């Protein structure tokens, strides 16, 4: 066969993370609800969650994250945007279309939105790898952007959150070269879903945790069957993090399934004796402040790991993705030399610190506000992010630069 040159290495060339204007302190939520704050801090492993202002949504977060990627890398070879979300703002039009428009990207670009609960970011990454494998001169913008919303006063409420991660997928990547073997697993389970007529998720919390662990085991076992690396050959492991204690539960489960000693300490906890540090603590540093960012959560974990560990060049990282419903995938990648940016953790910590802490009363009022697209409206000007959701005109959502 002639004419096809497979790229030797394809993966994540650059990555940017962003979140919302507001943050809710879980200690405030616990105090307001008469719950022991330790339940959220230690029981769930969460300190805060991000919450959108009325003029923010998945599109504004996605565009803000992608803007950083475009500013650093330009648009050469960029012909596809894949936006993964499970909190889509339209049933038909892909959220990647307004992102393309806000960023002033060329018209010669394909855009699409992908959905399968929290897993879809990984599906988008896989599809992007395929496009670049076919033509190594192309680059693909993969964006995972979500707002996690549960009903007020429900057990899921403290695990809400929001965030977006944009990634540039290319040949000869500067951050993480994804290896060819992947393990996949699907099971039809009603553990968590959001009906078309509901703005909040329906969830069977305890079923969702066992579904997560079963699916992760299935994907891990399939990775082994596909010739992927054994646990001893994996240096760091990242998990989908609906709350960071779930990553610890997943790590304990994987340790059992693989009969290996893996450190189970979250930040501030004592290291597990005679156990290998696989980056559990570093990989959870951002998520415990973002809350659940659904499709972005796994990649927020990747950002936290790459920003906090300077010794990763040449090391193998496993990404274990989960989306309720349920689908799981196990991928591995090799961290590239020169990946470490010593300023990155301070930069994103400053973004997290800069969020405005909202009172529980104000947060509950905002959460309870549901605006119909049947009537035109303008949103109040709150966010200082690069882009804002301006309101609805003729049933169509309007966006603008801030
Ligand atoms: P709950 O039932 O209120 O909490 O909600 P609990 O009673 O199970 O307690 C939670 C933990 O806090 C327990 O620890 C308690 O012992 C501990 P564990 O036994 O699990 O290790 N605890 C305390 N610790 C210290 N001091 C205290 C204290 N009190 C209790 N005083 C639940 C928990 C996760 C069910 C709820 O938050 C929920 O429904 N969340 C939403 C669903 C979810 O996040 N599921 C996770 C797996 S599914 C998934 O990840 C997919 C998802 O992201 C969606 C998607 O894919 O699209 C959700």
Describe this structure in words.
The chain is α+β, with helices and mostly antiparallel strands and 402 residues long. It has one domain (10-401): Peroxisomal Thiolase, Chain A, domain 1 (3-Layer(aba) Sandwich). Helix content is 32%, strand content 25%. It is built from twelve helices and 18 strands. It has helices spanning 26-33, 37-44, 58-73, 96-102, 120-134, 205-225, 244-257, 280-283, 287-290, 297-308, 344-354, 360-368, and strands at residues 10-18, 22-25, 48-51, 78-84, 110-114, 139-148, 161-171, 176-178, 183-186, 192-193, 202-203, 236-239, 316-323, 327-335, 356-357, 377-378, 387-393, 396-401. The strands form four sheets. Strands 1, 4, 5, 6, 7, 8, 9, 12, 13 and 14 form a ten-stranded mixed sheet that branches. α6 (205-225) packs across α7. The longest helix is centred in the middle third of the chain and has 21 residues, at 205-225. The chain is globular. The termini are far apart. The model is unreliable at 1-7 (pLDDT under 50). The protein binds 3-hydroxy-3-methylglutaryl-coenzyme A.
Provide key terms for this protein.
402 residues; alpha+beta; Peroxisomal Thiolase, Chain A, domain 1; 3-stranded mixed sheet; 18 strands; 32% helix
Topology:
Elements: E1 10-18, E2 22-25, H1 26-33, H2 37-44, E3 48-51, H3 58-73, E4 78-84, H4 96-102, E5 110-114, H5 120-134, E6 139-148, E7 161-171, E8 176-178, E9 183-186, E10 192-193, E11 202-203, H6 205-225, E12 236-239, H7 244-257, H8 280-283, H9 287-290, H10 297-308, E13 316-323, E14 327-335, H11 344-354, E15 356-357, H12 360-368, E16 377-378, E17 387-393, E18 396-401
Parallel strand pairs: 2-15, 4-5, 4-6, 12-13
Antiparallel strand pairs: 1-7, 1-8, 2-3, 6-7, 8-14, 9-14, 10-11, 13-14, 16-17, 17-18
Helix pairs in contact: 1-2, 3-4, 6-7
The chain binds 3-hydroxy-3-methylglutaryl-coenzyme A.
3-hydroxy-3-methylglutaryl-coenzyme A binds at residues 36, 38-39, 42-44, 86, 117-118, 155-156, 159, 192, 203, 205-206, 208-209, 212, 240, 242-243, 246, 292, 294, 322-324.
